[in-house]
Amino acid sequence: KKTVKDIPKLEQHEVNVVAKFYRDGKKEFRVVLCRVDELPDFNGDDQGNFIIDKIRNAKENMVKEDKLSKTGGERLVSDLINDYLFGKVPEKKDAWSIQQILKFWDKELGNIILEELTAVQITAAKKLLKDKAPKTQNNYVSALSSCFNYGVKNLHWLNNNPVKEVAKEEVDNKVERYLSDEERKRFLEGLEKSESPTLKVLGHFGLATGCRLSEAEGLKWEHIDFEKDIISFKGAKRKRICRPVPRENKVTKKKELVYDRNVIQSGLKNGSKAKVMSLKNLGPLRGLLLEHKMKSTTDLVFPHNVRTAWKTLLRNCEIKNFRMHDLRHTCASYLVQAGVELLKVAAHLGHKNIQSTLRYAHLSPKVTEETGEAVAARIYG
């Protein structure tokens, strides 16, 4: 019942700060942001910023509820993540991992208007990952950066990528965990006692070849030529492979990615089509494989899940903090410590990039012997 003339007479608690929102050029919404007495007693600029924050929050909620059309300035980070998830992620080999990472960012940053997201906000959210390994934290940042690059280059929703301004963690790639001589002795004794039909051979196989577990699980008997003593690694087992076309969830009516589980895919993790390794000079491995083949009833060399048997083995051997992938590290470490050239180690492991092999360089006494001899010759003649 008040009029314009009454305004000077009103108390602060009787006056609302109201925002007007428009859709398609038509005034449609009036939203009460706060009462005048709730405004902080700041100077004009700070008070204005307080109101702008209120407007931003109201706009985010209305965009989420589809009350406002999502123009360039009103799209949320969640919109970009969703578009990237269904438009690009299915093409990637590690689609499942990327999807889990994007869920984290969507939860922490999803409701922020896309063009207003800053590196400061991303860094603040990243601090919630402090308990994860530095490399894992960097993977989270890289996945979000790829998402924003998609928004800049493919969707043209943005002019720049704010994630590029976020600092990454320093990563120490030196490998320290491998079986000591004493641990290896207990490990091999434990393999002999294992009740698993696969673990004994797989343990020896991992130590001797240094292959990735996925490559061992993708190995078929047709890939092992016992006459020529050659193993041809041609595929790898993938826990999840994303189908290119999403489907609609019958309950939520929303799109979702679909995954096929435990698929053997041609090609290796490093991008190579195949890797060939000689069976000669690998100790008892050839005989173990032949014995294993006689008992086999499948075309796969290692068809069984050995996760439970592996945990039992480590417990019985009193070996702690050791993963199956560390068999690969152990093989590489032994090669380097024996003085094998890094390029040959790279060939044995199937490293496509020598940088991966350099992780083991600090374990080689031969390197410093040669460099020490060179510098001493120059100094002392």
What does this structure look like?
- The strands form four sheets. This protein has a three-stranded antiparallel β-sheet with strand order 3-4-9, with no helix packed on it. It has a two-stranded antiparallel sheet with strand order 1-2.
- The chain has helices spanning 44-64, 77-87, 95-109, 119-126, 134-155, 181-193, 199-209, 213-217, 285-295, 307-317, 326-337, 342-349, 354-357, 365-380, and strands at residues 16-23, 26-35, 224-225, 230-233, 235-242, 247-248, 255-256, 259-266, 275-278.
- Helix 2 (77-87) crosses helix 5 (134-155).
- It is of the alpha+beta class.
- The protein contains 14 helices and nine strands.
Topology, element by element:
Blueprint: E1 16-23, E2 26-35, H1 44-64, H2 77-87, H3 95-109, H4 119-126, H5 134-155, H6 181-193, H7 199-209, H8 213-217, E3 224-225, E4 230-233, E5 235-242, E6 247-248, E7 255-256, E8 259-266, E9 275-278, H9 285-295, H10 307-317, H11 326-337, H12 342-349, H13 354-357, H14 365-380
